[in-house]
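Hi V.,

You were right to ask for the full record rather than a summary. Here it is.
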Amino acid sequence: MEERGETTERNAAELTERGAENAPEKQALRRMERRRELQPLYRYCAELQRIAEGLDRALFLDLMTDRVVLLAVNLGAGVNGFSAMYFDFLSEEGLLPGEGGGAEIRLNEGEGQGLTLAEAKRFVLESGGAMFSIDLTEWVERLESPELREFLLFLYSQAEGFRYVFRIPYLEKRMVKRVAAILSDIFTVDTISLPPIRYQDIRETAAARLSEYGYTATEEAMELFERRLFEERSDGRFYGINTVEKVVREMVVEKLRRRSPGEEQTLIYAADLENILAEEQTERRNPEEELASRVGMAEICRKLKGILAEMEQGSRENAFYNIRFIGNPGTGRTEAARLFGAMLRERGMLTRSGFLEYRGEELLGAVPGETSPKVMVICRDAEGCVLFIDGFSLREKEETGTGADYRREAIETLLAQLRQETGAFLLILAGTGQELQELSAEYPEIQELLPYSVEFPDYTKEELLALYRDMVQKAGMHLREDAERELARYFSELPEEVLRQEEFANGRFVRNLFERTKSKAALRAELYGNDGLMICPADFRPAMSRDIAQLNQREVKKYPMGFRLRDL
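Predicted structure:
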């Protein structure tokens, strides 16, 4: 079943085909029982099976006619597995009203991905399916609208021929109950909530998946697996169990790549997984030395060492050690936070080596009742490591109404979690001076809950040039002499008004400039057959001619899976 996007005839055909292939032996309940994230589904289906025992099937099917499942779960946290296994269970138990398959319908309000209500009606009637998983997310705030009620009544009129599962995001209980109450005006509703899987359960799930492939992993390899998941979270595209399974498959592939002919080694070592981490994570010096050696970071390192000394002398049970990083984008706040977390880990002051990074808007829900659970889950997942939140201002430009309410709810939930979970994780809150000043004015307890502050000054022109040279060196490249001169002239001639602009991204500006330069050098190497390690003026002139605003944009961070192509 498709997790995202609109349902198509092809989806239904594929699922119908699978639905027709009933296994000779009932396996669905056993598979659910083995999967920790599906325990709520297992308990529900086991209860249905118990009730159905001894009853005439036709009678039980009649009892099931208007009964639907309301599933509160985030995308990627098990929607696909839930729907597929529920379908398999109903099929094995003979509880489907027809021979068709199942399909997901994602409803929209007339725009974007998914089906309109009218399109969904046609699909239900024409697809030949027996079960539909219907995503109501975009209608959560309009559940009592006449249009949706008419659609639900249509589904009810067809209930003898189909089974329905309705999905909403993982919300506060009061909101789930409200949705269930509205659906209960028409259907009999069984509600199942699937909270986002915990990190300690993720390791168990990964170990179980590896076992299904015939492999086990050392503790060091599992630590790399966890770091890989933190990288996935950092790009804002973490999809729960789906991501876990993706990384597990990559671990197995990497092991197979290194297997010698005839070797039957089924233990995965850390050395087998060197390619599943981002390159900058695999070769790192002592974190304190690394931070001190970064351009413009000597004073930052000194301040953080002072905070570290106070933390070592104090009592984490009775004090807050969270920190505010004050500075403009691109001034090294994220990397400083990452390395500071590594310093704490080396001293045994954090129990995990992970680093969770979020932008402020990623803490906000899209519908009422989603924000608080989202923030609480983030704080829960950060236990024992560093939680870095960047750009969490009190309000966005021209933001009013619901968006502003979600932002305040996220801030208030975060502060409540800090007070309640003292010492469970270290929060580093990053923002500009104005952003954090506004937050502190609105919420004075920030001064108590985040008592330390470190200021990150903007880079000078000389430091921007040094940053670029540093990136060239770390990439194993070098500048031709004329390129060195032209590059130095470019940075020295950057207008002061550009450097003082609020949007100027400092290190990010340099990173984007370098990445575009490196791309041109790689293209030239491919076309002319050289090693691509020498940068000439022709490589960075196109990047230098770009609009400054383009070079200030935040690039989407993505750590690619699959085979890595190495420079030869």
